[in-house]
Each structure stands twice: as structure tokens, then as C-alpha cells.
Write a structure and sequence with these properties.
The complex is a heterodimer of chains A (113) and B (110). By secondary structure, chain A is an all-beta fold. Helices cover 0% and strands 50% of the residues of chain A. The chains are: A mainly beta (113), B mainly beta (110).
Chain lengths: 113, 110
């Protein structure tokens, strides 16, 4: 079955450490996205990529970095510059035109310890 | 002003009740509209797209009012399993970028 796989499901980060969240899709979707969700709040866009080797900052890109070397993969690195990284991170993808909405991965819950 | 605004609720309703949520959007260039359902600590899942003519899927009906820039979701004969947060999502034409409301929480009680 086609879908989006995020790993790990839970991640613990020490202060000052960089961590990378994985997102892989086999839906042949061109566009991929990273969102952050804080408790009781909506989703906020971190980065998005509409094509391989190209990506744009979203609304809250500071302290994060991404790459899009393959169509299937869009990893997110949470750097030490992100001062409040504890959140639920969701990866999504959509096909051309986006008229069918997003497909989401099951998310990664990141906690700073 | 936020792109998409929703009443956070919670809406507490008994089983079998009819409940409706509204969502307003600020940009008239918005083109595609969706309702997503999110269960606690899970990813959002597409509930239904919203078409200009309105659309129905079983107990769920979605409407779009472009003149007033809002979409609505009506749930009839509420079930306990309908308890979740409902997210309104709007896409601007040709941007391939989605804007999420913060969600409306629904609690269906026995």
C-alpha cells in the first residue's frame, strides 16, 4: 500500500543536539511538507518542497533545515538553534494540483530532555 | 488576521444530535477546501473535500459559501466515535500550499 512513513515515532533530544526526522513516501507525489503542531494548536508550516532539489521556507523555518535529494524523501533536521523544539512533527505530501488534499505520515513526537 | 479561523469549542453533544461547525477564511483567492479529522495524538486524516455545490458523505455534509468566505460541516446522528478535533483546511489557487485552522473539538456523550 502507498503511504508516508515517518520515523522515529518518538524522539528525545538533549539540549544543544541536532536531530533528523525521517519522512519517506511511495505515492509518487511531487510536493512534500513539514508541519509542527503544539498542544491545543493548529499546524504550522516549517518547510515545503514542490520538486526535487528545491524547497521553500514556511512560516516557522528558523532553527530547522531540510533537503530534497530524492522525490521519495524529505528529511527534517531540528538544529540546536531551535529553542523550543518539543512538539509533534507531521510530514505530508500531495500530488499535482493538490485537489485531493494532503496525505499525512503518522508523526514524530520530539521531546527535549 | 489568520488565514483560517475556527471556533475551538469544545462542542459537547449527546449521541444522536446534529452538530455544525463553521470555518472562515481570509483570502478570496482560496481555491480548494477540506475538512480533516484528527484524533488525540494522531495525524490528521482527510474527512471530505468541500465543493462549491456542497457535498454529502453519509452523515456528513459540507458546504462552501464563497460570498461570505466560510465553509461548514454538519454531522447528523452523532456517534461516540465522531469525538475528535475537526480541522478546516484551505488552499490558495496555484500555490499548492495549505492553511490549517486550529481545529474544533467535538465530544459526543452517551
Amino acid at each position: 500500500d502507498g503511504g508516508i512513513t515517518q520515523s522515529p515515532k518518538y524522539l528525545f533530544r538533549k539540549e544543544g543536539q541536532n536531530v533528523t526526522l525521517s519522512c519517506e513516501q511511495n505515492l509518487n507525489h511531487d510536493a512534500m511538507y513539514w508541519y509542527r503542531q503544539d498542544p491545543g494548536q493548529g499546524l504550522r508550516l516549517i518547510y515545503y518542497s514542490q520538486i526535487v532539489n528545491d524547497f521553500q521556507k514556511g512560516d516557522i523555518a528558523e532553527g530547522y533545515s531540510v533537503s530534497r535529494e530524492k522525490k521519495e524523501s524529505f528529511p527534517l533536521t531540528v538544529t540546536s538553534a531551535q529553542k523550543n523544539p518539543t512538539a509533534f512533527y507531521l510530514c505530508a505530501s500531495t500530488g499535482q494540483g493538490a485537489s485531493y488534499g494532503y496525505t499525512f505520515g503518522s508523526g514524530t513526537r520530539l521531546t527535549v530532555v | 488576521r489568520k488565514e483560517v479561523e475556527q471556533d475551538p469549542g469544545p462542542f459537547n453533544v449527546p449521541e444522536g444530535a446534529t452538530v455544525a461547525f463553521n470555518c472562515t477564511y481570509s483570502n478570496s483567492a482560496s481555491q480548494s477546501f477540506f475538512w480533516y479529522r484528527q484524533d488525540c495524538r494522531k495525524e490528521p486524516k482527510l474527512l471530505m473535500s468541500v465543493y462549491s455545490s456542497g457535498n454529502e458523505d453519509g452523515r456528513f455534509t459540507a458546504q462552501l459559501n464563497r460570498a461570505s468566505q466560510y465553509i461548514s460541516l454538519l454531522i447528523r446522528d452523532s456517534k461516540l466515535s465522531d469525538s475528535a478535533t475537526y480541522l478546516c483546511v484551505v488552499e490558495r489557487y496555484n500555490f499548492n500550499k495549505f492553511y490549517f485552522g486550529s481545529g474544533t473539538k467535538l465530544n459526543v456523550k452517551p
